[in-house]
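Input.
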Amino acid sequence: MQTNNLLQHPNHLLQHHSFIELTARQRAHKLLDAGSFRELLGPFDRIESPWLPKQDIVPQADDGMVVAKGTIEGKPAVVIAIEGGFQGGSMGEVSGAKMAAALELAAEDNRQGIATQAVLLLETGGVRLQEANLGLAAIADIHAAIVDLRRYVPVIGIIAGTVGCFGGMSIAAALCSRLIVTREARLGLNGPQVIEQEAGIDEYDSRDRPFIWSITGGEVRYHTGFVDALVADSVDEVKNSMLSFIHQGVPTSHRSEQYDVYLPKLAAFDTRIQASRDVTMALFNREKTL
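Output.
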């Protein structure tokens, strides 16, 4: 399990380049070896959503999904990055198909003896509501593709900020072999506004940012064992953590396979109690869970 000194010494961040401030394409560039970046189905191919214009929404030429082939430490790799600045990083038919196909091709590479690594940059609110079932079907394909690929190589997920990772794509994050977050990141099955809409503001105030981060923020997700590394907002720190997990190889047991650990904890939780950081930390303690 990883954390780093920058979190204890924030002044050192002045000497580092922010990862959060980069676009999805820039993030992919930074994680791949210099000069190896080659984008598949990029914006000039104009593979965009056919459904958004029908609803008077301006589409994006890459549908907010960057698929970059290249190398990491000289070995074949694909970095798949969601652009959180377009439609909240939501997953539609095209963007979802791009991610699923890239993962499936990486698995096929591995079956052919080409050890292709996969890194997922997850800044997404989940399914794109304007494309509903098409987006959900694509996310299901992504889930299946991650489970297939992680048998051969570790699938590394990274949630940096500021969108977070929610909905069906939070399940995709949970299926990753290893998950890296910053303190600014958030990870949860349902977004704050969805919870407030369904359960009421007394249950979850979507405008209470300290409360939200105390429940779904990167730091608490690390200390409760739902992610594997908590790093500072630094290109170098994110990349070094990624490389460390790649070197460790496929874990002997994935978190999603440890249901015998998590189900009894959930069954013991009293839903009449208001969720809080303390309740969450007591229920899912890293030292007791891992």
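The chain has a mean pLDDT of 91.
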